[in-house]
Amino acid sequence: MSISFFRHRTTPSLSTCNNLLHQVSTRFTRFRFISMAARQDSNVQRRTQLNKNLLKARESVKDLPSLSPILAPDNRPLLMQNQAIGMVTSAQANFMRVIVESPGSSTVSENPRGFKARLESKEEEEPKVGVELLCVVKAVLKKIKRRVLVGDKVLVGAIDWIDRRGMIENVFQRNSEIMDPPVANVDHLLVLFSLEQPKIEAYSLTRFLVEAESTGIPVTLAFNKCELVDEETRLAWKEKLQSWGYKPLFCSVETKSGLGSLEFILREQTTVIVGPSGVGKSSLINALRSNQHVSDVVEGDNWSANIEGSKWLDDQRVGEVSVRSGRGKHTTRHVSLLPLSGGGYLADTPGFNQPSLMKVTKISLPQLFPEIRKMIRASEPTKCSFNDCLHLGEPGCVVKGDWERYPYYLQLLDEIKVREEFQLRTIGTKREGDVRYKVGDMGVKQAEPRLELKKHRRQSRKRINQSILDELDDLDDDENLGDVEEVPTEDDKRAIGLKNQ
Ligand SMILES: Nc1nc2c(ncn2[C@@H]2O[C@H](COP(=O)(O)OP(=O)(O)OP(=O)(O)O)[C@@H](O)[C@H]2O)c(=O)[nH]1
Ligand SMILES: [Zn+2]
Fold this sequence. Notes:
This protein is α/β, with parallel strands linked by helices. It has helices at residues 2-8, 14-22, 24-27, 29-40, 44-59, 117-124, 139-143, 202-213, 231-244, 259-266, 281-289, 370-379, 406-427, 461-485, 490-495; strands at 84-92, 95-103, 132-137, 153-160, 165-171, 177-179, 182-184, 188-194, 219-224, 249-250, 270-274, 337-339, 345-347, 435-439, 445-449.
């Protein structure tokens, strides 16, 4: 059809353009012919009309997500032999590692004539659950800006079970999503500190706890390296934390104490571990992934041992603590989910010492302190006189100032107020896309307006039309790349840690 536009120089109608755009996932190549026709058509009037149609059709690109509706969490699509449902465990550049959770059945074969039947029956002898696939993301998902995150449950298609490759075709709806690091479907956050090396600081711990609470995901607090302090110090911290509203766990990767309880808490969940650099996050993950410690609580299959072709049995990099600062040297880089021997996944994060609190507002801050939550609960049905009380000792406020972290609360409130006022002043009513965030000292993010180049110069219509055509060509190229050419090279495989099979 589109080839005939090219040959006979006819102008496709708007509805034809729309139709073609809606077929973007499978037949985008056709569009190339229209754009070529638009460029090569010598009749100016026809060319203008065609460009106008393309322009309007571009509007309908907004409907593209309908091409690939997001899957409900409990959706169990009928899977073909070369499809599977799995979880993304790491992402690097264009490649993602996916662990197969439910493979397709050979009874639903994409290939009704079954000329691969012999091969398939041979494959079936090998278990597919737990197999790690190196995947690319289908181009259409990128075009409709559907991000695939580590932790996402995904539908993988075009699987080559021998080479362990596939293509992520769709994403299931997420239960949760955290930004820093970007991980989906996180069930649990583990805030890890050490009492010594680096020495614990109550204010820094408060920032980490507030940041963790701001995600709305359940939080567990644990202290590592507890063999470095005496019983008295440990007890003092335990009591202190209880008054803050937390029940801390104490452990030591060095002596292996407390690891069994941690393993029990982490089982069957996806946990992200956060904490300052050098507290032993990577060391803890390594210890929990191996069966070196004696676990008296958890029994059962070590299913992660089934995972083949994996770098998971390599250890996380453990860094040295800097002699000068007593802190770790930021050794953890890419986020990946690591299966624990007792079940569940754990994601390491790069150690940083100053959570940005970018998502915390002055109104949400009070709810992130268990002490304030408790005081408000205890006072019910009386509440503060104002719904959005900031608890600064106003008359009628039920939150008093006689608790240990009140000065920290005030300090954080000031910091957030300054940030919010700055944003209001400098950014005003700008849309989110017009704001960019710069990471400054100590990892504190600052918002600033995104400057638009040549803002006041009107773009010529010719340029607009040309850019649309270029965009469509890119889309076309991407589509081909995603479906056909994007085969991981040996270097890519190495980059993502997939060993040669
Ligand atoms: N004494 C003692 N040292 C420990 C313990 N656990 C870990 N370490 C040491 O602490 C140092 C830092 O450990 P890492 O696991 O790299 O710390 P991290 O939190 O992952 O650091 P980043 O990657 O920078 O965020 C290493 O030298 C570990 O050997 C422990 O229980 N006791
Ligand atoms: Zn109040």
